[in-house]
Amino acid sequence: MTRNKKIFLITTIAIVGMCLVWFLNSGMNKISGDIFQAYADPDLYKNALAIANNNSEVKAHLGTLQDLGKMAILEGETTYSNEHRHVRTSVTVQGEKGKARLDIEADNINDKWNYSVIRIRIKRPPENKRIIEILDK
Prior knowledge:
Number of domains: 1
CATH topology: Nuclear Transport Factor 2, Chain: A
Shape: elongated
Distance between the termini: 67 Å
């Protein structure tokens, strides 16, 4: 192996090692872990969307909400706590008449999600800006 290749290999290993240490110490591993956990819990969003779709105010302003795509979960914010038994998440939802944010707070008890907060936040257009509290315990 030539001297340049050895230097390149050592430098590459050092940079990858520093990036790995930074990733593990920055808290990014928890954020990415929460996103992967959100993908693994499709019932969390599916059940909340069903509850939201039964709300007359949501129907009037947004129409029927569509199922979430994988990008909606990735673009949203999700935080798990209490050993992944409590979740707080906010994702974009699309209805026939527009889009909004769906806020969820729930606890997983005996493998079933118990919702304490389900909220729709409509931001645009500004004249339709409102918060629809569907569930707030």
